[in-house]
Specification:
two-stranded antiparallel sheet, 5 strands, elongated, 10 helices, mainly alpha, about 240 residues
């Protein structure tokens, strides 16, 4: 969304994927370049950065914003005297509920305007991708993927490593696409059920597997998966 806005306004937009290894010195160098050239920066997964670093980053962003508000052409920043291009701007994106993420400190929150994002239509995205993979029965199969994850989120136990969002849907779609390429003449319902099982069964705990099997049976009635062929792998292991 930020990149599309920058493109519409003919602005250079630099997207940076944040990690917990970033320190305030690295962020300071980034901000120096932004303030000097007037580019936009989009910091993705911003709340991965450690809380101590985020507090310093808030002061860095505030000093740039104040310089812009005062219509300065030059200003001092992190020990350097810089020319200021007032077109510079900072955007951040984050998933607030994810494990291993920091809550933004209050002095950082007040520097940004919150924009809520809509949940995408998973079924429509799935249908389009399945059609691009060559599935002729794409719409009902895409709806079954969404229904599977909806029922899993309601019936299965709550675990930190369980994910029923867009990443999980995309993993199933990619697996289904790979299976379709390998078995072009196979029943599409069998391919989809196999993709859903291959992606999800390894991460579910033992007490959730019977529930997941029940959900699969309800959504794919009468579909029996052939036993997986591990002959080559077992031969290599032996």
């Amino acid at each position: 969304t930020t990149k599309d806005l920058a493109k519409a306004l003919a602005k250079q937009c630099v997207v940076f994927n944040c990690s917990d290894g970033l320190d305030y010195l690295a962020m300071g160098k980034f901000f120096k370049g932004l303030a000097s050239c007037g580019a936009w920066a989009c910091f993705d997964e911003f709340n991965r950065i450690d809380l101590e670093v985020l507090s310093v980053v808030a002061q860095q962003i505030m000093s740039i914003q104040r310089a812009v508000q005062l219509h300065l052409t030059e200003f001092d920043f992190e020990g350097s005297h810089l020319k200021l291009n007032p077109a510079c701007s900072v955007f951040i994106t984050m998933n607030p509920g994810y494990a291993g993420r920091s809550d933004l400190p209050d002095n950082l929150k007040v520097l940004f305007r919150t924009v809520a994002m809509m949940v995408p239509d998973y079924a429509m995205i799935g249908e389009i991708l399945l059609m691009s993979f060559g599935f002729s029965n794409a719409r009902p199969l895409a709806k079954k993927i969404v229904a599977t994850y909806k029922l899993c989120s309601e019936q299965l136990s709550s675990q930190t490593h369980y994910d029923y969002g867009m990443r999980a849907v995309m993993a199933v779609l990619r697996a289904a696409g790979n299976l379709k390429q390998a078995y072009k003449d196979q029943d599409e319902s069998i391919l989809m059920l196999r993709a859903i099982r291959d992606v999800n069964v390894p991460k579910f705990l033992s007490h959730d597997l019977p529930l997941f099997a029940g959900i699969s049976k309800d959504l794919f009635p009468g579909i029996e998966l052939p036993n997986p062929d591990y002959v080559n792998m077992l031969a290599a292991l032996n």
